[in-house]
């Protein structure tokens, strides 16, 4: 299997054709980015409102748990039956996967801001919108990015379902390989999805560290010791 994978990855057609790895990778990233963006348009404003006002907290829990329980392939089939083939049902299905972590991260970040800071902002006459965007939002960014990390990783791993409705992406290698009983192609597609998820995880970890106040590289532990009487 290892030699077959090396031959599959090193084949020139895998890197130059319109159905090669670079093209499939861009398609996969496109589905992921679009689904996360649409999910963020819904989840972030809702999380900001609930976190700032404290209203609708049960909605966060219920919506997040309910959407997480949905079977993505079944939801995709339902949207295809209702809308038809195309990009829209795929984005809608993946969007439902992105909303829970984005909503939970935004709500937790905003509601977790130190109440003393909020009270101080009100005390100097800041409006509610100023408090939200100038005090709460900057402090909430680390948890919001953590929610984004979770959403991106879940969506990028599930975006393979696009291949089930004749779209592209890295899932094509898995679906086409299964249809052709080409296990090397299936393994290659799975490896590519896993590598993409790892790269995105590392990048988003760096972003989360960048927006977290007080984070810095840990200094290496000192190896020199002082002995008694020395």
UniProtKB/TrEMBL annotation:
Parts of the chain that traverse the membrane: 29-52, 73-99, 151-175, 187-207
- Location of the ABC transmembrane type-1 domain: 25-204
- Tree of life domain: Bacteria
Q: Which keywords describe this protein according to UniProt? A: Membrane, Transmembrane, Transmembrane helix, Transport
Q: Which residues form a coiled coil?
A: none
Pfam families referenced in this protein's UniProt entry, alphabetically = BPD_transp_1
- Location in the cell: Cell membrane; Membrane
Membrane-related topology note: Multi-pass membrane protein
Location (main, coarse): membrane
By sequence similarity, the record places it as follows: Belongs to the binding-protein-dependent transport system permease family.
Protein name, entry field: ABC transporter permease
Q: Which organism is it from?
A: Actinomycetospora termitidis
């Amino acid at each position: 299997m290892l030699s077959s994978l090396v031959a599959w990855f090193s084949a020139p057609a895998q890197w130059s054709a319109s159905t090669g790895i670079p093209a499939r990778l861009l398609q996969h990233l496109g589905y992921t980015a679009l689904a996360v963006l649409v999910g963020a348009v819904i989840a972030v404003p809702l999380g900001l409102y609930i976190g700032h006002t404290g209203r609708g907290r049960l909605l966060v829990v219920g919506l997040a748990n309910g959407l997480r329980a949905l079977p993505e392939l079944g939801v995709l089939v339902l949207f295809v039956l209702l809308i038809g083939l195309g990009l829209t049902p795929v984005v809608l299905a993946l969007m439902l996967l992105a909303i829970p972590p984005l909503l939970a991260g935004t709500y937790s970040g905003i509601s977790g801001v130190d109440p003393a800071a909020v009270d101080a902002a009100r005390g100097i006459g800041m409006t509610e919108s100023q408090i939200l965007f100038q005090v709460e939002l900057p402090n909430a960014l680390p948890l919001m990015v953590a929610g984004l990390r979770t959403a991106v990783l879940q969506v990028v791993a599930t975006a393979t379902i696009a291949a089930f409705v004749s779209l592209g992406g890295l899932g094509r290698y898995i679906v086409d390989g299964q249809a052709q009983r080409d296990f090397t192609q299936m393994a290659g597609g799975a490896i590519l999805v896993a590598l993409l998820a790892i790269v995105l995880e590392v990048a988003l970890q760096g972003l989360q560290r960048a927006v977290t106040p007080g984070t810095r590289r840990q200094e290496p532990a000192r190896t020199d010791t002082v002995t008694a009487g020395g």
